[in-house]
Amino acid sequence: MRATVLHGIEDLKVEDWPEVELGSGEVRVRIAAGGICGSDLHYFRHYRMGNYPVLEPFVPGHEISGRIAEVGPGVSGLSEGDPVAINPSRPCGACDFCLNGRELLCTDMKFLGSSRRTPHVQGGFAETFVTEARQCVPVPGDLPLSVAAFAEPLSVALHAVNRAGPILGARVLVSGAGPIGCLVGMAARLSGAARVTIADVVDQTLERARLAGLDDVVNVSKGDGALVDASQSSGGFDVAFEASGAPTAVLSAIRTLKPGGTLVQVGTFVDPMVPVPTDLIMTKELRLLGSFRFDREFDWAVDYLSSGRIDVTPLLSHSFDIGDATEAFQIAGDRTQAMKVQITFS
Ligand SMILES: [Zn+2]
Ligand SMILES: [Zn+2]
User: Are 75 and 188 part of one and the same domain?
Assistant: First the structure.
């Protein structure tokens, strides 16, 4: 079977990849769609993730969906042909965090398509993929598998909103109108936010955010003056989600939050050492929270997608066959064209 294998910076090859035997509790999934995430792009451009270089041929991809192709021994509840979304988190189930309902902080997490461990946990941009049955969440037969592949990024967004706490009636700022930022805005609306303002530096991506139903879009490429004005007319934002990874966005959020407001850090920075105005954090009594991946929100994401309560279709901008995977990654890196780019495998 074929997989997209990263061998170096911008060196992605579609090549034969060994089929592995199914172990107990495992299933083989024929992959249908895989969304390219910011972290996949980071691997493509830098051949590393933060402090974790890629040390061996590496298959990226963790936003994947498909159909069960083969069921291993000891698996119940899944049969050949079932459509599924694959949860890329594989926590150990035995550490203190796992035992206390905080699996995402697992000290022995295996997350698909990640170089944090060696040997690396290979990802799912491949024609078939073997995973534990517990990671496969069935989806309705009439749900397009391209939509099911949004379960992972949507669960990141749901987790970020969950971290903020109740936001019924809140005025919300989202910095960064990429797929995660847009999904955070949509999840905030679902959770009862009164108004969601989304800021970015690219008009095309803001236009998609508008199509996705977000209330106000602000281009901050020439500074955050318009954002400060918008926040002042309403007394400031109650909650800000930083999903751009731009240091200036952290500053804007801290400036435009109401006293007592909450900042949730979702985005990843290329250089994570970001100076912040600590005086404002102190005198406004802001809450600063981190949000990393997701826990049980994955199942909720599948439910919201299946019921249509969240419509992600305006965010799917491109779809490429596996044979054009390099082009898919190149387009995904061009924010004037792309929102969510997917690779299709069958
Ligand atoms: Zn992702
Ligand atoms: Zn654990």
Answer: no
Residue 280 lies in a domain: yes
Tokens of 184: 């955070």
Closest ligand by atom to 92 CA? 2
| Amino acid at the residue 138 | P
Rounded (5°) CA angle 64-66-67: 155
pTM above 0.85, yes or no: yes
Sequence-ordered list of residues with C-beta below 8 angstroms from that of 56, at least 6 positions apart, any chain? 118, 119, 120
Q: Give helix 297-307 / helix 151-164 axis angle, nearest 10°.
A: 120
Ligand nearest to the CA of 153: 1
Report the separation in Å between the CA atom of 90 and the middle of ligand 2, taken as the mean of its atom positions: 9
Residues 6+ apart with CB under 8 A from 273: none
Which two tokens mark 145?
């598998």
In angstroms, the CA 170 to CA 116 distance is: 37
Angle at the Cα of 311 from the Cα atoms of 104 and 217, rounded to 5 degrees: 90
Distance in Å, CA 294 to ligand 2 centroid:
14
Using one digit for the tens of pLDDT, what is the confidence trace for 277-330?
999 999 999 999 999 999 999 999 999 999 999 999 999 999 999 999 999 999
What is the Å distance from ligand 1's center to 52 Cα?
A: 17
Per-residue pLDDT tens for 327-337?
999 999 999 99
Ligand nearest to the CA of 95: 2
Distance (angstroms) between ligand 2 centre and the Cα of 110 equals 9
Domain shared by 75 and 15, yes or no: yes
Task: Tell me which residue range forms the domain holding 69.
Answer: 2-150+312-344
DSSP at 88:
-
Coil vs helix vs strand at 4? strand
Q: At 34, list the tokens.
A: 């895989």
Q: How far is the CA of 154 from the centre of ligand 1 (A)?
A: 9
Closest ligand by atom to 94 CA: 2
Which residues have CB less than 5 Å away from ligand 2 (the ion)? Answer: 91-92, 95, 98, 106
CA 234 to centroid of ligand 1, rounded, Å = 33
Cβ–Cβ under 8 Å, residues 212 and 196: no
